[in-house]
Amino acid sequence: MSTATHKLLKGATGDWEVVIGMEIHAQVTSNSKLFSGASTAFGGEPNTQVSLVDAAMPGMLPVINEECVRQAVRTGLGLNAKINLRSVFDRKNYFYPDLPQGYQISQYKSPIVGEGEVIVELEGGKTATIGIERLHLEQDPAKMLHDRLPSQSLIDLNRCGVALMEIVSKPDIRDAEQAKAYVSKLRSIMRYLGTCDGDMEKGSLRADVNVSVRKPGGPLGTRCEIKNLNSINFIGQAVEVEARRQIEIIEEGGKIEQETRLFDPNKGETRSLRSKEEAHDYRYFPDPDLLPLEFPQSYVDELKAKLPELPDQKKTRFVADLGLSAYDASVLVAERESALFYETVLDRLANRARDGKMAANWVINELFGRLNKEGRDITDSPVNAEQLAAIIDLIGEGTISGKIAKDLFEIVWQEGGDPRALVESRGMKQVTDLSAIEKVVDDILAANPDKAAQVKDKPQSLGWFVGQVMKASGGKANPQSVNELLKSKLGV
Amino acid sequence: MTDLTSLMLAEARKGLAAKTFTSLELTDAHLSAIEKARMLNAFVMETPEQARSMAREADARIARGDGGPLAGIPLGIKDLFATKGVRTTACSKILGNFVPTYESTVTSQLWRDGAVMLGKLNNDEFAMGSANETSCFGPVGNPWRREGSNTTLVPGGSSGGSASAVAALLCMGATATDTGGSIRQPAAFTATVGIKPTYGRCSRWGIVAFASSLDQAGPIARSVRDAAMLLRSMAGHDPKDTTSVDIAVPDYEAAIGKSVKGMKIGIPKEYRLDGMPAEIEKLWSAGADWLKAAGAELVEVSLPHTKYALPAYYIVAPAEASSNLARYDGVRYGLREQAKNVTELYENTRARGFGAEVRRRVMIGTYVLSAGYYDAYYLRAQKVRTLIKKDFEDCFARGVNAILTPATPSAAFGIGEKGGADPVEMYLNDIFTVTVNMAGLPGIAVPAGMDAQGLPLGLQLIGRPFEEETLFSLGEVIEQAAGRFTPARWW
Question: Cα–Cα distance between B452 and B146 in angstroms, integer?
């Protein structure tokens, strides 16, 4: 698959290409921490989910949580990546109060997951392939609370030691859209796998973005790292403003200094956090408290066999089996919950071969449209999959027209209820009785003789008559019958 | 009742079982000996209340007939072991009055088996030292003195308090730890028996870490048999320490008195140092002769990378220490110095909390791990370590059961006599012992004789991984041949 064309930025000296690499920190979904038995639940009272190991008491030792290893391997498989049967935990040494041990246990030279790739969906149905450099396991630091006391900072160790997967991309990302799409895709894959909840507001997913600019095809520029972006929109904005900043500096004859920067969403700018000279020397070395992490290939194979269907596979299946367009399929699979909703609708349909595609249109256009308008989530939809399937069945079998179906959808959205029963009780059934329709057709033809005469020359004006008949029948006439009747009566 | 302190552990066990005396009596005898020996500074924390309560409990257990292998035996605990509710400081100011809410795995196994805690023993700060002179509680006196001299000598280190207390009959045995010789060197300096078991034999959980890949707990005791009894309780797999090994703990005591006939004992030629005192040389030959007389076969072996062991050790150990000691930052427990900001908090707390030797090793360790130096120092030292390990493996592959060496290059020296100007002078104490830690092997130091000044000297036996039993059998032969050595009381 070839990388889609990407957006170049215009500068005073011509076009610029942005080169982006990302480090995603994803909290592993697990009950307990990476090296201790303390709970990982979010939102507990400060310092209530802390083991002796997390607090780095003297003589405490880390013990690897197998569940976190399993989740990392599953994520690696989801990223089509090489799983390393032997990996090593290292200590990354630096002093900060959010790090009780004085070092973070991480993986430096030998990560648990090696190279892989993900395909990201872009606007207009295009895709781009982004390489994964590696994924490794490490400890999340504690949370510092700087605003509670005037002259002191407080520390909450609840988060300290929670497992993180650091997913490092290759510098394959070329613009803000790709950057956003990449994070969305990773998040989607991890949600399908259940390995990270992807909740950026709670900090379960954070991104560090490396940005540099160059003339298209030219040598790589000096990069700056923007730390700790916690929303997909901020990632897009940060890439834009940082690339613009760099272009401006270079075009004014300046030089980019390699440094770490922070994005200020309120001011819409990035600012320097520390320069390369101020960068820490982490003094990495293998953690002597932990043996190398080793497992057999059979362990990986077993996990692979039990992986759920992932978005790309699901998309392929929707296209092949149901005839959906690639675009529609990718919209449906983008979030696990949407795909689940759609598949539940499919399961409930009386005839999925006939109506599967229609169901996709309904989910994407009517349901998603309505949900977006009201700012609601699919998991919180007033119309459930069973109700939507019933509506689609009613259309498919010819009991109601598409137009009536929209009214019916609205009633179900507002009031709930069984769509089939509603159609009965509210007299929304389509009129298929030809004599009843014929009467209406005759009346309308009689009332508009001029227009009827024109139809022979302008067959497209037939539609006007169809509309009139439908209107007169309160939308209940079967549009196909109306069409046929009109044609025979007008001789077209 | 003071006689009770001179019993061997095995004898005391018999007496307790026969109800000749109670654990409370035995414990009181030791508590009173401790009180009279305060000038030795072996104990940094006496816990008489707890000792008596544990003794009463042991007596009750013995009466019920479920005494446990160490029921009622009073022990001293090196201050590196976390003891629940009892101040644990690693003899460093930086831990202040730290009282753990947890008990180390090794000590909890001793209490499980009925042992009684008399108190916490002095050691070099964070176990960094070979003379017990770096403790924030001050140096420890060796119960042994040169003939006709009143000079107080060091007991060795880092487990100086353990060795001194056992030699002075203040406790029936003691826990100790050994990173480069910290059990075996003090044992040799005090005519006690000390064994550092195979790396992974004892859990490190709850022991203040110095250098994680080298640290190992073991006992210091009055005899080889006593050491075997203590190690049996201390050893065992612990799921809380990933590096501890899941192999059943044998009945070490059963190895005492077992024939060593046909065993192949290696004499490494590289351990014959230039300028080694003739007495040490003589002792080494004597040891070889005793083993030969017992039916063992002696062979010369080569451990060609021995000369690199000490320099490599002084890279690996400080590197790990610099990281292990980063947690002592004044933020959560222990000493906290006043400061205007967090960097100053670290600087002030660590500058005041750590002693000179600890600061030196933290600096060395930080340096050897830093960018640009890692490959030249740490990585190379690890390669040397692999070679040292291979030296031993080659030797054992040729059928060698154990290796006999001197335990130390000299007898005990006076407080302040060594390492004042050049720390390397002190580091050289570990020349015969560090290789064993670097290779993760078991090593035992057994008293073997006296030097011309009347100071004890020890021999070391190095064994195959997890073959501590061989060391106990061989150690017993040396002990039987050399006899026992008890210091004359002057304290």
Answer: 9
